[in-house]
Amino acid sequence: MAVVRRSGESPCALAPAGIITNRLPSQAVYQGSTEMEIKRFETKARMSRAVVYNNTVYLCGQVGKDASKGITEQTATTLEKIEELLESVGSNKDKILSATIYIKDMAYFADMNAVWDAWVTPGMAPARACVQAAMAREELLVEISIVAAV
Fold first, then answer.
1. Are the C-beta atoms of 142 and 81 separated by less than 8 Å?
2. What is the mean pLDDT of the chain?
3. Which of 30 and 37 is assigned the larger pLDDT?
4. Is residue 59 a contact partner of residue 49, using CB atoms and an 8 Å limit?
5. Minimal CA–CA distance to 144: which of 88, 79, 90?
6. Do the beta carbons of residue 63 and residue 102 sit within 8 Å?
7. pTM listed for this prediction
8. Model confidence over 44-83: pLDDT tens digits?
9. Distance separating alpha carbons of residues 52 and 62, to the nearest angstrom
10. What secondary structure, in 3-state letters, does the chain show?
11. Cβ-contact 2, 11 below 8 angstroms
C-alpha cells in the first residue's frame, strides 16, 4: 500500500495510493481533488454568524431586531436578517434547504406561520421543523436557524 504525502508533512495514518494523509483518515483528500475551505463570517469567541463549507451555508440562530415586539414583528425581522445574511454570503431564501424554528410558546404558532408563509416563495419551501423551546432571553419569542445552498 503506497502512501502519498504533501512535501514536508508527516502522515496521521496509512492510506491507499492517491490519498493525501496529513490529516485523520476520515479527513483524507483524494489526489487531484480540491480541498474544501471552511469560511466563517462575523466570528466571535462563541460562534460565527455564518459558516460556508462545500457550497452550503449554515446560519447561527437568528432572532428579531427588537425583542420588545410581538411574534409577528419578531418573525418578520428575523426573516429579514436571514435574507440579508444569506445574500451577504452569496445565497438567498430560495436556496434554503432546511429551517429549524424555535418558538417560545405554541400559542404563537399560527401567527408565526402567517409571516413565514407570506415570506417563503411558492414552490420553494424548505424542509422545516418547529419546536417549542426555552429561549436564551425571556423577551425572545422566536429563533430560526437555517441551512442553505450557496
1. no
2. 85
3. 37
4. yes
5. 79
6. no
7. 0.77
8. 999 999 999 999 999 999 999 999 999 999 999 999 999 9
9. 16
10. CCCECCCCCCCCCCCCCCEECCCCHHHCEECCCCCCCCEEEEECCCCEEEEEECCEEEECCEECCCCCCCHHHHHHHHHHHHHHHHHHCCCCHHHEEEEEEEECCHHHHHHHHHHHHHHCCCCCCCEEEEEECCCCCCCCCEEEEEEEEC
11. no
**Cα Dmax for the chain:** 64
Q: State mean pLDDT over 86-102.
A: 98
Place of cell 452550503: 56
The confidence score (pLDDT) of residue 38 equals 96
CA 52 to chain centre: 8
* Domains recognised in the chain with CATH numbers: 1-35 (no CATH), 39-149 (3.30.1330.40)
Q: Which amino acid is at 3?
A: V
Percent of the chain with pLDDT over 70: 77
Q: Are 26 and 20 in contact (CB under 8 A)?
A: no
